[in-house]
Specification:
Elements: H1 3-8, H2 37-40, E1 43-46, H3 62-67, H4 69-75, E2 79-82, H5 110-122, E3 126-132, H6 141-148, E4 160-161, E5 182-185, E6 190-193, H7 208-223, E7 228-232, E8 248-253, E9 259-261, H8 272-285, E10 289-293, H9 299-306, E11 315-317, H10 329-340, E12 347-349, H11 358-362, H12 368-379, E13 385-389, H13 410-415, H14 457-462, H15 467-480, H16 482-486, E14 488-492, E15 499-506, E16 509-516, E17 522-525, E18 534-541, E19 546-548, E20 551-554, E21 559-565
Parallel strand pairs: 1-2, 1-13, 2-3, 3-7, 7-10, 10-11, 12-13
Antiparallel strand pairs: 4-6, 5-6, 8-9, 14-15, 15-16, 16-21, 17-20, 18-21, 19-20
Helix pairs in contact: 7-8, 12-15
The structure holds alpha-D-glucopyranose (GLC).
Alpha-D-glucopyranose binds at residues 92, 95, 132, 196, 232-233, 293, 353-354.
Signal peptide: 1-23
Region (Disordered): 400-425
Family: Belongs to the glycosyl hydrolase 13 family.
Length: 566
């Protein structure tokens, strides 16, 4: 099944958590509550093409990011994850890396990277890089050598096989980007394997030389000062060596016109965990964090990615939470409880560069700004690490292309019109009301959505009721309130169909969070005295949200966050 469609599916049944939550403390400096830096940090994904363009060529760059560090600091960001900025033919906009140890000239130079890292460090912001571990570009020197002859030094660094017969690939596996996952190369009369585009050949992680080379890349960047990595498509590292055909999941075709397969033999193979333990060992030497694009849709699989004794990923992005695509207190409660009881530290993500933005997924078209605040009030106050996506804090919308000739994303080019691709969630950051939303003086690589007139950093900074001001308030609170930093998660009123409410309890302190997920006014009463608390003091609240005694009244899509006293 296509990964983007997976994203959009509301999760099916959840397996019950097997293991109780525990801290994971193999890194170095822990705070008084025993937490590592990344547990209390707020992460923010920057899509470098679209964030800020310092040299006015229409594409964002590293110096652009450096110029916005003060903005990020004020917003309350502690770590930025930069989507790939390495040399690349840009067939999949950087997810096709042709040199792991350099910066693509369109984004700047290594010196620019060093300056960014230095300036970020000055402000206490960590840099996380996107490590594309599953595949390289077909222009990487390893692949160019690999394809040159069957006896080339790097031949076995990729996955080459004979076809089943003339014009018949080795098996039925389909690429996530459409068509067969095998491409025939006439130079050596064999097929090579690619989970994604043909321009993204899969590395052969069964070859120890590949492992060594990739571990060296990890060390190279850690030594240069990065604080960790987001491991791209890490679930796809291994394939069945016997190349068994994948079972057909259901009849019919997916949006790209291919059979709908279950990725039984080319995804989530157990061997990936050995690699993760290796990558983690190295990360630990530098107090680094590993975030994983793991695509788990149940807790058993999620726990496996934390590893036995938390020796694999610190922050696997489970997507259980993000697959709740409607404002449903019951669904969120279920997913939060599951993730909260998993064996590692929770990670919460509501948007990224591969999925429709949260503003559109949850918005009802009439109360989108209020709903954006509800979502911020939710995932920024849960126990766990939130990973924001650029523009989410100002309520950016997904704006897909309307004509096929405008599509840039390879997925949209193949899938048009059913699958329009991911350009819509990658449009330029909206800084102000000026030309091109202040992103660039040149025509941006993707058009700026019309919403920049109403949703931009400059205007929203001046408006105390804006989505941006709300994010800033909640993030400020999150950084300073002990219960929000370290408190346990205690669900309240679990049968309420409209209001999602919970406590975060730390020692004798607690914070109450009440989120109205409906378009009508709601009142919720809580047995706080029974839990040993009395009185609620508002900390952050939207208009018409207030507490009287143990009762909270919330306007449509209202948010109330209050401090409880003993
Ligand atoms: C991941 C990335 C996505 C990319 C794919 C191939 O899913 O998030 O953007 O296209 O990997 O690298």
């Amino acid at each position: 099944m296509h990964r983007k469609s997976l994203w959009m599916l509301v999760c099916g049944l959840l397996c019950l958590p097997l293991v109780a939550a525990s801290a994971q403390n193999s890194g170095k400096a822990a705070d008084a509550a025993g937490h590592q830096w990344w547990q209390n940090a707020v992460f923010y994904e920057v899509y470098p093409r679209s964030f800020a363009d310092s040299n006015n060529d229409g594409v964002g760059d590293l110096n652009g990011i450096t110029s916005k560090l003060d903005y990020l600091k004020k917003l309350g960001v502690d770590a930025i994850w930069i989507s790939p900025c390495f040399p690349s033919p840009q067939k999949d906009f950087g997810y096709d890396v042709s040199d792991y140890e350099n910066v693509d000239p369109m984004y700047g130079t290594l010196a620019d990277f060093d300056r960014l890292a230095k300036e970020a460090k000055k402000r206490g912001i960590h840099i996380i890089l996107d490590f594309v571990v599953n595949h390289t570009s077909d222009q990487h020197k390893w692949f160019l050598d690999s394809k040159s002859s069957r006896t080339a030094e790097h031949r076995d660094w990729y996955i080459w096989r004979d076809g089943k017969g003339p014009d018949q690939p080795p098996n039925n596996w389909v690429s996530d980007f459409g068509g067969p996952a095998w491409t025939f190369d006439p130079t050596t009369n064999q097929y090579y394997y690619h989970f994604f585009e043909a321009a993204q050949p899969d590395l052969n992680w069964r070859n120890p030389a590949v492992k060594d080379a990739m571990f060296d890349v990890e060390r190279w960047w850690l030594k240069r000062g990065v604080s960790g990595f987001r491991l791209d498509a890490v679930d796809t590292l291994f394939e069945d060596p016997d190349l068994n055909d994948n079972p057909i999941e259901r009849p019919g075709k997916n949006a790209l016109g291919d059979p709908i397969e279950e990725n039984k033999y080319n995804d989530n193979l157990p061997e990936v965990h050995d690699v993760l333990r290796g990558l983690r060992k190295i990360a630990d030497e530098y107090d680094g964090v590993l975030i994983g694009e793991t695509w788990t849709d149940d807790i058993v699989a999620l726990n496996r990615y934390y590893g036995d004794g938390n020796n694999e990923l610190q922050l696997p992005m489970d997507f259980l939470f993000a697959t709740v695509n409607k404002l449903s207190p019951a669904e969120f409660r279920k997913q939060i409880a599951a993730v909260d009881a998993a064996s590692g530290w929770p990670t919460f993500v509501i948007s990224n560069h591969d999925i429709v933005r949260s503003y559109d997924r949850y918005g009802d078209g009439a109360h989108n700004d209020q709903i954006a605040k509800v979502m911020a009030g939710l995932y920024l106050t849960l126990r766990g690490t939130p990973i924001m996506y650029y523009g989410e804090e100002i309520g950016m919308t997904t704006t897909p292309p309307t004509r096929k000739e405008d599509v840039k994303d390879p997925l949209g080019i193949t899938g048009w019109p059913e699958e329009k691709g991911r350009d819509g969630e990658r449009t330029p950051m909206q800084w102000n009301e000026n030309e091109n939303a202040g992103f660039s003086k040149a025509t941006p690589w993707l058009p700026v959505p019309p919403s920049y007139k109403t949703h931009n950093v400059a205007d929203e900074s001046k408006d105390p009721d804006s989505v941006l001001s709300f994010y800033k308030k909640v993030l400020k609170l999150r950084h300073t309130n002990p219960a929000l930093l370290d408190g346990s998660y205690v669900p309240l009123n679990e049968n309420d169909q409209n209001v999602l409410a919970y406590l975060r309890v730390y020692k004798d302190q607690a914070v109450l969070v009440a989120l109205n997920m409906s378009g009508t006014e709601q009142t919720a009463s809580f047995d706080l005295s029974k839990k040993g608390f009395s009185g609620v003091k508002s900390l952050v609240a939207t208009e018409k949200a207030e507490a009287k005694g143990e009762t909270v009244t919330l306007g449509p899509f209202g948010v109330f966050i209050g401090q409880l006293a003993k």
